[in-house]
Write a structure and sequence with these properties.
The protein folds into 2 domains: 182 residues, Glycerate kinase, MOFRL-like N-terminal domain (Rossmann fold, 3-Layer(aba) Sandwich); 166 residues, 3-Layer(aba) Sandwich (glycerate kinase, domain 1). The longest helix is centred in the C-terminal third of the chain and has 18 residues. It contains 16 helices and 15 strands. It has a 6-stranded parallel β-sheet with strand order 6-5-4-7-8-9.
Length: 442
């Protein structure tokens, strides 16, 4: 059986388990004129308007599901998705914008969504659909910060090695929509947040920078991130001045836990990385493998995580621990890559896969897969990579050196050349990354 034939069913099962439309339908249902959302009931006759807003790579199928449930009870809506992630809808408008670096379309969508919710009254119901990528896709800036400034800060943070938690703390303090400010704009309308999580551990305030939830972070936290990664002297002047003004108490902070405005807000996680990992485990067991989920909290530098993943494969080979072959170990989470001045082409999953290929060089019966569940790993059209003990040797046979490509953060062309690149196309879902460690019998 080829590598692709082995792993394709695992990937399909994982993605099916976090299908955005199905996830929404599991948590939202309508019985007559009563809308039930995860234990709460909303009589639709109590509302004059139902408004739908949101952002993220899974936004289009989530919108379709809400329209299927509510039909013509929806008054209007605006949901922004990444380019090429659109799908037809009947009432709510699907806008497209850039990810991971915001563009003018994202600012326009943010203004549109803010306008919709700002006109809501206590007699209206707001439904907010949030999924991975929402931080870049939905934005509204204070007058003193330009789009170019935002793009510069985004590039700096993405290249710094900062975690998504740290990046989003800074983003929230540059925005008029993040960090609970969308819910603040919608107040006093009741708000339902349906959230497809792409952040390890499902922290509501970090997913898409938490537009509908209280923000526990402060101006001091945002500035600490800037100092931690030595970015203070590289920030645009407008951003540096805003953060400093916030530290001095001259700008109000984001709404905090305990703020009464959140009393009418109900946020629900509809799908996450654990659901995808569990489905992959079940599929591996159907294939006749011993299967085990080791963690869905994996974080760290991609190439360092690769060493741990390779060590797990070696343990299975040498001692049959934690499972004997044929085995499938599953991990979930999201790694990071600290880029140099002139990085090549790739993404965190491709980098992890290439680093793992070097660690398992010469081993037989081992396959390591690293996959972005959204189908787009970094600024590429690949989802990740699938490598084995001969991946490094295959490159050498055609004149490519795996170590050189890894050091240049240039995994994409290497994996493509040796047939180890995973390309699923946009999946229109996003629940972090999955890593599979497959060890076959002799």
């Amino acid at each position: 059986m080829t590598i692709l034939a082995t792993i394709s069913p695992l990937i399909r099962a994982a993605l099916a388990a976090v299908d955005p439309a199905a996830a929404v339908a599991r948590h939202m249902r309508r019985v007559g004129d009563v809308l039930h959302v995860d234990g709460r009931a909303y009589d639709l006759n109590d509302f004059e308007k139902v408004l739908v807003v949101g952002a993220g790579k899974a936004g289009a199928p989530m919108t379709q599901a809400v329209e299927e449930i509510l039909g013509d009870r929806i008054t209007e809506g605006c949901v922004v998705v990444k380019y090429d992630h659109q799908a037809p809808t009947r009432i709510a408008r699907i806008r497209q914008a850039a990810h991971p670096v915001p563009d003018e379309a994202g600012l326009a969508a943010g203004a549109e969504a803010l306008d919709i919710v700002s006109r809501a009254s206590a007699r209206d119901l707001v439904i907010c659909l949030i999924s991975g990528g929402g931080s870049a896709l939905l934005e509204s800036l204070p007058p003193d910060i330009s789009l170019a400034d935002l793009q510069t800060v985004t590039d700096l943070l993405l290249a710094s090695g900062a975690t998504i938690h740290e990046i989003n703390v800074v983003r929230k303090h540059m925005s008029l929509v993040k960090g609970g400010r969308l819910a603040q704009a919608a107040h006093p309308a009741p708000l339902i947040g349906l959230i497809l999580s792409d952040v390890v551990g499902n922290p509501l305030d970090i997913i898409a920078s938490g537009p509908t939830v209280p923000d526990p972070s402060t101006w001091a936290d945002a500035w600490a991130v800037i100092e931690r990664y030595h970015l203070a002297n590289r920030l645009p002047a407008s951003v540096r001045e805003r953060l400093q003004a916030g530290l001095r108490g001259q700008i109000s902070d984001t709404p905090k836990p305990g703020d009464p405005l959140f009393e009418r807000v109900h946020n629900v996680i509809v799908a996450d990385n654990a659901a995808a990992a569990e489905a992959a485990r079940d599929e591996a067991q159907k294939q006749g493998r011993q299967a085990l989920i080791l963690s869905t909290f994996v974080e760290g530098e991609a190439r360092e995580v690769a060493k741990v993943v390779a060590a797990l494969a070696r343990e299975v080979l040498a001692h049959g621990r934690p499972l004997p072959p044929p085995a499938c170990l599953i991990l979930g989470g999201e790694t990071t890559v600290t880029l140099g001045e002139r990085p090549g082409r790739g993404g965190r999953n491709q980098e992890l896969a290439l680093a793992a290929a070097l660690q398992i060089e010469g081993l037989e019966r081992v396959t390591i897969v690293s996959l972005a569940t959204d189908g787009t790993d970094g600024p590429t059209d690949a989802a990740g990579g699938a490598v084995d003990g001969r991946t490094a040797a295959r490159g050498a046979e055609i004149g490519l050196d795996a170590r050189t490509h890894l050091d240049a953060h240039n995994a994409y062309p290497y994996l493509q050349a040796v047939g180890a690149l995973l390309q699923t196309g946009p999946t229109r879902t996003n629940v972090n990354d999955l890593i599979f460690v497959l060890v076959d019998k002799e």
